[in-house]
Each structure stands twice: as C-alpha cells, then as structure tokens.
Amino acid sequence: MHYQRQNLNKAIELYTKACNANNYKACTNLGALYFSGEGVKADIKKAKELFSKACELGDGDGCNNTAFLYEQEKDIKTALKLYKKACDLGHQIACGAYKELSK
Fold it and tell me: What tens digit of pLDDT does each residue of 22-36 get?
C-alpha cells in the first residue's frame, strides 16, 4: 500500500523487515526497487542478492529475475537452471526464456 501511494521510504522499510523475516514477495519487491533505483540508489548486486533470496524461498518471480541478471552476465548455465526453477514454479515468462535460451 505504501508503494502504491509512492511512500517509498516506508515501503522500503517494510519490505526490508518482511524480507528479513523470509517473506519472498517482499524480497522480490525490494530487489525490483534496487534494480530500478526507485527510492534507493540503483544497486544491481543488491537486487541480485534479494532476487536470489526470494528464489531460494520459492518465488518464481525471484528466480526469473535472478536468471535474467545471470543471462545479462553471460552465465548461461546458471541462467538456464534458474529459468527452469522459475518455470517449475509456474512462471510462464521464465518457461519461454528457458526454451529460447536452450536453443
């Protein structure tokens, strides 16, 4: 709700607290803010850490986002593994990315 109202400082505070408590969606949402630099200084490394944690906790979005970052780094083997995990978690975009990258 704070994010939707553009109260980014409060949203970041709450996402951080929830992510620290292993709420995977909070980790993914916080990672997205670090990726885009929205409300915080852009930090791809931090975004990757947060997306990775979300993935470990079973979030398809987190796995897909982590895979994308590995793909950008040209680590195709790791990207494929993560796209597959995201696909297995029901993330349809990741399924498509996995198929394309597997060619």
Answer: 999 999 999 999 999
Q: Rounded distance, CA 25 to CA 62, Å?
A: 8
d(CA 19, CA 23): 5
Q: How many residues does the chain have?
A: 103
State the Cα–Cα distance between residues 101 and 12, nearest whole angstrom: 33
* Ordered alpha helix ranges (H), 37-88: 44-56, 60-72, 76-88
CA distance 57 to 35: 19
Q: How far apart are the first and last CA of the chain?
A: 41
Distance CA 47, CA 66 (A): 9
Rounded Cα distance between 72 and 14, Å, is 29
Q: Is the pLDDT of residue 50 over 70?
A: yes
